[in-house]
């Protein structure tokens, strides 16, 4: 038995309905669908997709909290990790959480798991000339970052300046027409 395919669509600013595939700009959601089955996060029986903000909304800076453990920033949930970073005073978490695009203010820094999924499904959405921070801490001195040129996922000093690309999680049924 084969699973039933999910048909996704979005409406352009001109009112045209177009199918949604990885890399499709979702105008009503203010970003690009960056997930495939590998990038879809299942939580409590609900399936989520990752919406990636445009590159113009990237931030560059330190992860923050070098030398201290950031409690709650080691899990697969980027939103929860970003909240923990924010509570610890992370400059990039402050910038990302302050972001509001067309009324959407639920942006977060992707977790290591979310970022690996984005690398696998939509690396073309990211610059190849810099690493990107994840919201996943490795140790009190390091946090995980992702390279989109060669695919390296590595831990680096929290005081290093890398990019952070905001993402949002949406339930996939919100994309259906």
Protein architecture, described:
- With 177 residues, the chain is of the alpha+beta class.
- Helices cover 15% and strands 28% of the residues.
- Strands 3, 4, 5, 6 and 12 form a 5-stranded antiparallel beta sheet that branches. Strands 8-9-10 form a 3-stranded antiparallel beta sheet.
- The chain is globular.
Protein topology:
Blueprint: E1 9-11, E2 17-19, E3 25-26, E4 31-33, E5 41-43, E6 46-52, E7 59-61, H1 78-87, H2 91-97, H3 112-121, E8 131-137, E9 142-147, E10 153-157, E11 162-164, E12 167-171
Antiparallel strand pairs: 1-2, 3-4, 4-6, 5-6, 6-12, 7-11, 8-9, 9-10
Helix pairs in contact: 1-2
Tally of DSSP helical segments: 3
Which overall shape is indicated by the principal axes computed on the Cα atoms? globular
Main sheet: strands, sense, barrel: 5 strands, antiparallel
Show unreliable segments: 1-7, 36-40
Strand percentage lies at 25-35%
- Overall structural class, as computed from helix and strand content, comes to alpha+beta
User: What is the typical, i.e. mean, pLDDT?
Assistant: 82
Number of strands: 12
Alpha-carbon distance between the two ends: 26 Å
Radius of gyration: 16 Å
Give the topology string: H per helix, E per strand. Answer: EEEEEEEHHHEEEEE
Kindly state the percentage of residues in helix.
10-25%
